[in-house]
TrEMBL record:
Source organism of the structure: Planoprotostelium fungivorum
Main location: cytoplasm
Domain Phosphotyrosine protein phosphatase I: 4-133
Domain of life: Eukaryota
Keywords assigned by UniProt, alphabetized: Cytoplasm, Hydrolase, Protein phosphatase
Similarity annotation: Belongs to the low molecular weight phosphotyrosine protein phosphatase family.
Active site location: C10 (nucleophile), R16, D127 (proton donor)
Entry-linked Gene3D superfamilies: 3.40.50.2300
Protein name as catalogued: Low molecular weight phosphotyrosine protein phosphatase-like
Amino acid sequence: MTKHSVLFVCLGNICRSPMAEMVFREEAKARGVLSEWHIDSAGTAGYHIGSSPDSRSSATCQKHYPNLKVTHRARQVAREDFHKFDFLLCMDESNLSDLKSIRPKDATTDLRLFGSFDPLNDRIIEDPYYASETVQPSPPGSRP
């Protein structure tokens, strides 16, 4: 069986993209399709390489998925990701623009906004890093 693959991308890979990765992984597991997916996340910038997700993101995910084990460590998008993943899903236009600028000409990935799957058409997922509010899980339309 061929696996599907998705890489969620935000700026630093400690808030939005690891949260999307964790939620997608848990939803795939709940639906019995986790073995059909390779799921990961990365950042366009290298500010937080090796860091755990932001505590607000982890806390929100664990609130909705109490058995969730957070093992993520931030990494930066690599050239091979454009060939390794079926989808690179960006959280905002800046992430999308950054990836378009480094995308190899022979890339095989489908590069788009993660929010484009949102049935409410809220295409941009704002960066909560500097916000004091708790972040919320990914939109319902994002489920596997």
